[in-house]
Amino acid sequence: MTTARAIALNVEQVAVRFGGLVALSEMNFTVGEGEIVSLIGPNGAGKTTAFNVMTGFLDPAHGRVSYRGTALNGLKPHQIADLGLIRTFQRTSVFPNDTVYDNLLIGLHRQGRVGLFEAILGLPRARASERRLRERAAELVEWVGLERRAYDPAGSLSYGEQRLVGVALALAAEPSMLLLDEPVSGMNASETHTFVELIRNIRDRGVTILLVEHDMPMVMSVSDRIVVLNYGRIIAEGPPEAIRNDPDVIEAYLGQGAARA
Amino acid sequence: MRAAITILTLAAFASVPLWLRDPYLLNALITTGIFMIAAMSLNLLLGFTGQLSLGHIAFFGIGAYVSALTSLGFDIGLPGGFRLVHEPWPPIVGFVLAILVAGLCGYFVGLLSFRVRGAYFVIVTISFAEVVRLVALNWVELTQGPLALTNIPSITIGLPGLGELTLRTKFHNYYLVLAVAAVAYLLISRLVHSHFGRAMRGLMENETLAVSVGIDVTRTLTLAAVISAAIAGAAGSLYAHYIRIIDPEVFAFINTVTMVIMVISGGKGSLAGPVVGGLIFGLLPVMLRPIMAPEAQWIAYGGVLIVILFVLPRGIVPSLAQRFAKRKRKAAVVAVTPVAFSERAKEPA
Ligand SMILES: Nc1ncnc2c1ncn2[C@@H]1O[C@H](COP(=O)(O)OP(=O)(O)OP(=O)(O)O)[C@@H](O)[C@H]1O
Ligand SMILES: [Mg+2]
After folding, report:
1. What value of ipTM does the predicted structure carry?
2. Do B217 and A78 make contact, defined as CB atoms within 8 angstroms?
């Protein structure tokens, strides 16, 4: 699968330690522009840690990450978000006291930048920008199918609905690459099905996607390529069919001996 | 609806000097108004970013001193035998400088403390206020120390077509304070309803999520600190030119506590909160003074605060708004229920 895609995200020799625990070691992989890559692995393999490094929430012990040619080392999370690299969180993460609609308005921060004086004086440009944000927020609410909950506090929504708000928030930030950390956990089968359609839809708009997910049928159906992590190391990488039959991967998931049994 | 309430409130405030003839009460309203402006500025930080400035009076006091010194002039020795002489400038220039200098101080305090927040910010602001108080107390050549700056001139404004007007009377000063309060209210309202306000709210509710969508924590909080400090500085300037005497006691911690009480009782994070809390706790001491011994006044003051927070724990304005909304929602549910039932009846069995 070495098509002529330009490299969007490049992870080189990344290592992370927590005290004595090696959470990631010598991690190397790339994600091409417009690709859907899944990062999978058993619990505690280091997937979320990898996300934290890529988005500036965690400094690696060594190694480097670059996005579209810009080195991310030392950048703060909001600066990385400004490059268009946007993530979601494994634990539900919303602005709980704000309505779903207001959540999205906050998420639209990157689109709404106007001058302080323009905003305070309510100048035409600021008002036009406000109008555009409101339209966009309404669109996003509709897109994730939460119109009926638009004016409820996000904290009062069901778990699955809050996950959708989380994804909509990330989309509001206008990503050129989206990192999704277990987006369908807590969703029922039909919600998951809708969500897969949503991901394809996002990709069709030219957004590159890196997905962390435990739901194997979903991963297999949606990914162009899969990277498998175990104990902080990449143990396999390739298209879904190859990964499905890889003995190392089966062993990592099913435990010692299972692959040979 | 909301705009109507605002305009009616403003009109009610504007009418007061026309029927209130008691100079003692008018004076109380003016000083209350000045502290209300300071409380609004504190609310911008505490209510909309969650950062507690326990040295907020420093910005107020700096505004007062900057404005007083600008309009009085000074002549001080500098190291190396130089002298710095400043001839008096019009008080209105002092008012503008007060805003700028206080805002600048807000910027540095923000810069110093917003990398590590929460308790750290509280400590930095308290220390800052104490340092400023000590400077005001000990730099006698500039500030007269405990002897106070006296004879501070009243603010003079140029009115188009009417010539110059010196705002010497209570009547004048009442309208000056009301105008500044209205502008401060409008400014804060515009700010918190803008893109900047949403960034502040996002940070307060879920910082990790906020930064992940591109919100810059340091920049957002520093901006709030600058605007908050600048407004407090404006209030301080009004204070100096109204009272016309100012000493380092203005920096007393109790003044910050008063502002915090105004904000918390009225409701932090609500625009009208500091106005309501400010009125109650600005006027309460004045009301109690003629009828109670000083110790009893303090007990009554504390008692009122406790009762308010017990009955309306989120502060007067947000708690009442919430009750009102609940009642409205109940009414809406009653209206909607029959429809919901009829729809269910249509579903196939
Ligand atoms: N802040 C931290 N401090 C100490 N140890 C940590 C920290 N964060 C993660 N770890 C450890 O690092 C390892 C990798 O954790 P990580 O959360 O990246 O796993 P994961 O692959 O996302 O797992 P899961 O599928 O359960 O989400 C785990 O052993 C975890 O306990
Ligand atoms: Mg994880």
Report:
1. 0.92
2. yes
